[in-house]
Amino acid sequence: MPQVRPFATDRLPDLLRCMPKAELHIHIEGSLEPELIFALAQRNGVQIPYASVEELRSAYAFSNLQSFLDIYYAGASVLLKEQDFYDMARAYLLKAAQDNVLHAELFFDPQTHTARGVSMATVINGLHRACVDAKAELGISAALILCFLRHLSEEEAFETLEQALPFRDKFIGVGLDSGEVGNPPEKFARVFARCRALGLHLVAHAGEEGPPAYVWTALDLLKVERIDHGVQSSKDAALMQRLAQDRIPLTVCPLSNLKLCVFPDLASHNLRQLLDGGLVATLNSDDPAYFGGYLNENFTQTFAATGLSSQHAYTLARNSFEASFIEDAAKRRYIDRLNETFEAFQ
Ligand code: HPA
Ligand code: ZN
């Protein structure tokens, strides 16, 4: 990895914003801005229990993951038509392009929609069309990862997988999200084994609020390729060693961790500890409409609060491409563009 010369810290925010990067942990339903929620509610004749955009936004004060999930699932209730899913993903991809995101892997929660009578075809076709158009019109590559809701049963996850398989060419992998504590990875061991046999990429949220034990079982029983969040891993030295040795990427989301009270403030975030421990950490926005910032906002606020350096910036951006599920030739092209940006800044 090239040594990055340190330079005046007042230039660091500019570098963070303009450096090419990938986003690997973004729930597309978590990019629904209050304005779009209200517009879609009106378009679809859906009632929402908030009188205005301001009132909805002022409800975004969370004490933990579950307090957020309650509002997040309510917000998603305005999504009914294929065009709604397209518009949501399009709005995110436009923001990502402005943040110099070259590649994005988008989580989606089909069970949140199929439970309301929306078909799997409506969800996947709308999101996938936005990904195709983003490549042609914005120059961003984007891919979909289907997440199973872990507060539901494994049987329901199997049913969801069956419904999604006719669209197998439109998503690249599966993940595991929603309320973590009490829903350990092992609850989904059989469905993940089936997804693995199908050649799908595997990821799972683990160690966001849950203990290091959940990270271990995500690795050993689900056989995931990346851990989403994983910040609780720093409590377990043997786990840190395992993650570093096997180069298992963590998709870390500092503004999410702040808003869900995983850390009391950004200055206390353990991103530096994870990087210094040799882990392949990446930086991501999680649910940017709810947590107060898209990817560049996560970079600039986290670096300002923790004093990370230009070398850390390079490592995080490079890790984002290395940890992505794009083919090697595209990875190399993106890393070349990253190197050019850093050389121009020296
Ligand atoms: N954790 C778990 N489930 C989620 C999240 C998260 O951060 N965001 C959306 N669903
Ligand atoms: Zn998440």
Overall description:
With 346 residues, the protein is of the alpha/beta class. It has one domain (9-345): Metal-dependent hydrolases (TIM Barrel). Helix content is 51%, strand content 13%. The protein has 17 helices and eight strands. It has helices at residues 12-18, 34-44, 53-58, 65-75, 82-98, 110-114, 120-138, 154-164, 189-197, 212-222, 237-245, 254-259, 271-276, 288-291, 295-306, 310-322, 328-345, and strands spanning 21-27, 101-108, 141-149, 173-177, 201-206, 226-229, 250-252, 281-283. Strands 1-2-3-4-5-6-7-8 form an eight-stranded parallel β-sheet. α8 links the parallel β3 and β4 (173-177). The longest helix is centred in the middle third of the chain and has 19 residues, at 120-138. The protein is globular and about 55 Å long. 48% of the residues are buried. Zinc ion is lined by residues 25, 27, 177, 205, 228, 286.
Shape call: globular
Strand content: 5-15%
According to CATH, the fold-level topology is: TIM Barrel
Biggest beta sheet summary: 8 strands, parallel
End-to-end Cα distance, whole Å, is 16 Å
Hetero ligands: hypoxanthine, zinc ion
Helix/strand order:
HEHHHHEHHEHEHEHEHEHHEHHHH
Task: Give average pLDDT, whole number.
Answer: 96
Can you tell me the number of structural domains? 1
CATH class reads Alpha Beta
CATH superfamily: Metal-dependent hydrolases
For the CA atoms, what is the radius of gyration? 19 Å
Q: Detail the poorly predicted runs.
A: none
- Tell me which CATH architecture applies here: Alpha-Beta Barrel
Number of separate helices = 17
What's the arrangement of strands in the largest beta sheet? 1-2-3-4-5-6-7-8
Overall helicity: 40-55%
Determine the structural class based on helices, strands and strand pairing.
alpha/beta
Q: Using DSSP, what is the number of strands?
A: 8
